[in-house]
Task: structure prediction
Amino acid sequence: MSEYVLEMKGIGKDFPGVRALDDVSFNLKAGEIHCLIGENGAGKSTLIKCLGGIHMPDQGEILIDGEPVTIDTARVSKDHGIGIIYQEFNLVPGFTIAENIYLGREYTKGKRFKRIDRESMFRDADEILKSLGQEDHLNSKVRVYQLTISQQQMVEISKAVSNKSKIIVFDEPTAVLTQKETDLLFEIIAKLKKEGTGIIYITHRLDEVLMLADRITGLRDGKVTGTIDNGPEVTKDDLVAMMVGRKLDAYYPERKTTPTDEVVFEAKNFNLAGVFENVNLKLHKREILGICGLVGAGRTETMKSFIGAMPHDTGELYVDGEQIHNITPYELIKHGTVLLPEDRKNEGLSLAQKAGTNLCIPNYDQLTREKAKWILDHKKEKEFIDKYFNLLMVKPALPDRLAMHFSGGNQQKLIIAKWMARNPHVLIMDEPTRGIDVNAKAEIYNIMNDLSADGMSIIMVSSEMPELMGVCDRIMVMYEGRFIDEFTRDEFNETDLGRAQSGIRVHTN
Result:
């Protein structure tokens, strides 16, 4: 028997114009948590897709328990005991939990006329859920569309467990989880490790890497930068250096400016029954205002209502002192207020369109001929795209490439760029750094700082307390649809912010 349950040796993978993986070697022991770190675009997803049968490597070999295997389909990957829990879950919303767990492997009964044995599937699925500590929370007969994101993730884990996976890959598993849900996930991972399952754990959250990992492998530009054993001597700076080749000395930039007293955006008594109530907010010129709260607090819904993407029952909205009576996205854009949505893939970009086209979509009125406004000026269009690709350092600088083929950080830059071209006064950013690497995060923070210095006002919604404290001038805390507390920069600390997020007011007046 081999020392390793998995070995990937000299893996190479090319896509048109891109060397995605270059002589990558990676291995995993049974009962080990091996963290894979790297910037967006470093090759992590491509490597995992080679393991999952989505891509076939152009070079190299894969060994399971020391035996060479060819993994050319997702089915073959599962047959070799590999379970992959991707960021985007592979579930059928209208099916029950049990039907999703056994999809493609349904139990049958009857000799002559085979039919699905759902009762046996429900029974065994409930046993799996019980083994994961979910017997009080999930019933295998419930349909997936009725579940929260964290519960859907438990279904994905159950799928892997039901397949008796010897290798389980977790890709950014805590990105959408509350702290309580994250703690439960870590308990399950510890249980799987104790049972001998090899865990590959991918995350941008370096605290999780230092807490969970037995070993850590870094990827940069499709190449392995090194593999190290985790220990008390390993620091975040060491991990950052593995990913980006240098330490990020100025991770949170020094604020270039201070807010003025001028109110540029104000919401008064905004209400939407059952979602948020009595929401009052003032945003000042050049201010970066942070919004935090636990998942389900109503943050995203409130931001969408501010720009008319969601309804509201009552309330008033003012931009630059002028009341907006017709609150629609079109009207708010006209008044210089734009939103970078939390779900950038479905709401922020047209992934099947070229990156350059995405930049132009809200800006075609600036790209027409002078004397024929109904005709697109292709020279203007090219100059426009080149300008914003260069200004925000979008990589790779390939505007004809489909938006779906850019990394998360560069997709976020595309959204910022298309709205920068509208020269807005107010920029609302909902989870702008979710799912992007540390270097891309630092770039986003610097962009925000520069925009604020140029006179823009920003609302930043985030689940990451350190980034709110590192970037914002003021933080408002939302709890169960209400703003219950507010902190100025000199009052920032994780303990008080955490208490406020749990519904305990720190300020009594």
